[in-house]
Design goal:
- By secondary structure, the protein is mainly beta.
- The protein has one domain.
- It is 7% helix and 22% strand.
- It contains four helices and 17 strands.
- The chain has helices at residues 2-10, 61-64, 281-286, 304-307; strands at residues 17-22, 24-28, 45-49, 78-82, 84-87, 94-96, 99-100, 116-121, 143-146, 159-164, 184-190, 194-195, 209-210, 230-231, 234-241, 258-260, 271-274.
- Strands 1, 7, 8, 10, 11 and 15 form a six-stranded antiparallel β-sheet that branches. A five-stranded antiparallel β-sheet has the order 2-3-4-17-9, with no helix packed on it.
- The longest helix is centred in the first third of the chain and has 9 residues, at 2-10.
- The chain is globular.
- The relative contact order is 0.25.
- The model is unreliable at 1-13 (pLDDT under 50).
- Bound molecules: 2-acetamido-2-deoxy-beta-D-glucopyranose (2 copies).
- One 2-acetamido-2-deoxy-beta-D-glucopyranose (NAG) is lined by residues 88, 91, 93, 323, 325.
- It holds the Pfam family DUF1996.
- InterPro entries: DUF1996.
- Residues 31-277 form the DUF1996 domain.
- Keywords: Signal.
- This is DUF1996 domain-containing protein.
Length: 332
Amino acid sequence: MKSLSAALALAVPVYAGLRFPCSTLTTQRLDPVVQPGSNPSTHVHHIVGGNAFNASMTGDVASRATCTTCQMANDFSNYWTAQLYFKHPTNGSYIKVPVLPVQPLLGGSNGAQAGLTVYYTQFDLSKDNLKQQKITSFKPGFRMTVGSPTATSSQQVGLTYQCLSGGGRGAEMNDFPTKPCSGGIFTSHHFPACWDGKNLDSPDHQSHMFNTIKYNGFTNAPACPSSHPVRMPQVTYETTWDTSKFNSMWPSGGKNPFVWSFEGSGFGTHADYMFGWKGDELQKAMDKSECFYDGCGSITKQQMATANLCTVKDMVGEKVEGWLTQLPGMAM
Ligand SMILES: *[C@@H]1O[C@H](CO)[C@@H](O)[C@H](O)[C@H]1NC(C)=O
Ligand SMILES: *[C@@H]1O[C@H](CO)[C@@H](O)[C@H](O)[C@H]1NC(C)=O
């Protein structure tokens, strides 16, 4: 990652979309995209964003939310991934892995509490492609997922793990690191950027979108196909899982002791997106070429101290923290 960091530092000004921190909103067993109305859903999620988050979410989310844990004050979207757990190598108990705010390669986390960092890029990290192509915002009610908890082999590009150590992020891998990482485990989830132009969702929550990105990382999506002709922002999540305190319990040579909340394979890493920007705020940001890092001028930002006050109640009412003899919802 040194070369990317150096390249970014040289590329002044840098402009290519939005990047902002969102603090943790809640960690519970709900999934309004894949299992709407189910309380609880099958596995635990780590969720950030607006307080309209609920077991079921329809229509214009932004009209119901009154606060958001994201730095962009008019972004009431919800963003979530599975929660990571440590599975004790000898007694088999599980404990939730804490989340650290992402320390971006440039800039800081701005006072975020845990959470994840969200990107809406127009091309890649250092340029936009607005001269070639309009970037169309998602519409109210839009939702999508990337990846699948049942995957047992490598899925599409952009779903990666990195082993943080000594300030570096290391190589992007498709499965969990096989050795302890002194700085934690960094996960990335890149969503596809081509939309069919019609459906806010689809039965598998994926086929209304299409991925043309061929490589891991922030690379531009090649042209969208005629089946999915509308170019949307490239949405990415980055999360830092603080696995370091469990490294002393990882026996030398033993297998990776970290599991997602659905257990499964490391290839099962996945993420969910529920659009919830107010009005045309995201479209306005995507129409500009100067809006990376600084929030696009016209986009209203809030202090993370304010964002951190936004909460939702525990709607499931089960223990997800501390030592657990089984993962919530997972029968032995
Ligand atoms: C969540 O859904 C329940 C049941 O439909 C509803 O009563 C409640 O007001 C909703 N909460 C929010 C924050 O939208
Ligand atoms: C497993 O080990 C951990 C760490 O020592 C301990 O806190 C937990 O209670 C143990 N679980 C069981 C079921 O013994």
